[in-house]
Design brief:
Radius of gyration: 18 Å
Structural class: alpha+beta
Strand content: 15-25%
Number of helices: 3
Strand order of the largest sheet: 1-2
Oligomer: single chain
Helix content: 40-55%
Length: 70
Amino acid sequence: LWHKRHAERSKFWTKNKRTERPCENCGAVFMGLDRAAATRQKYCSPACKRDAYKKSGKARDYTTAYRERK
């Protein structure tokens, strides 16, 4: 009940606008969020976000560091 009342009072859905932009991973055009905190949506889907993370090499570095701890 609190969540519903809080959402009605804050009207969070009016604070974020959507603009058309290309996905940074695959290049597909999508309607991305422009958030109030100046962080914008970069990827068209969670799958593209995952693929970009894997391509960046951060996943490999994390896995290597984790295996070396054992």
